[in-house]
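Sequence, please.
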């Protein structure tokens, strides 16, 4: 397994630790440590996991380490990390469930579309809208876990922007898929 794929795997392995602090079990949630440090630690773990996304892609392209394993694991790791964060935020009532549902629906739909396209011999490549979607979702998650109330208060705006960009990027992937189907 090359370095880029190890970084992607690290992102996946960080998710349970992120979740431990993002939505701690009741036995831990009431302790002074978790009351004071759960959100900041969850934020740091999320940022570290997100940084592996930047690094793995950069390393894979720069050192010609792009593999089929990486092509599969990288988007899976992205989706798992964002889904984990959104589920944690829904469970703590800091994110509306309908926003989580629409974003996850887009993720499943685009993954399905790209899989069908690949089975028919063509690739629907990632585009700037998909990359913008990921960046905006990461910003929204970070703002949601930020320890300052003012920043957390603005997270709602970030989630609406993330939702809009997510829907637009999904529509672009559907359009690209339908164009090939004609």
């Amino acid at each position: 397994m090359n370095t880029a794929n190890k970084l992607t795997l690290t992102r996946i392995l960080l998710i349970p630790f992120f979740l431990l602090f993002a939505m701690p079990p009741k036995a831990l949630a009431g302790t002074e440590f978790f009351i004071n440090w759960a959100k900041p630690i969850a934020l740091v773990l999320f940022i570290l996991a997100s940084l592996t996304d930047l690094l793995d892609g950069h390393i894979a392209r720069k050192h010609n380490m792009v593999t089929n394993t990486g092509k599969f694991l990288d988007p899976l790791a992205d989706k798992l990390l964002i889904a984990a964060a959104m589920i944690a935020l829904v469970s703590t009532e800091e994110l509306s469930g309908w926003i989580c549902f629409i974003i996850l629906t887009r993720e499943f739909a685009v993954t399905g579309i790209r899989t069908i396209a690949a089975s028919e011999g063509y690739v629907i490549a990632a585009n700037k809208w998909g990359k913008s979607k990921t960046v905006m979702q990461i910003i929204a998650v970070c703002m949601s876990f930020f320890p300052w109330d003012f920043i957390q208060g603005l997270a709602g705006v970030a989630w609406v922007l993330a939702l809009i960009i997510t829907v637009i990027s999904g529509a672009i992937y559907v359009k690209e898929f339908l164009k090939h189907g004609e």
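Residues 149-181 form the longest helix (33 residues).
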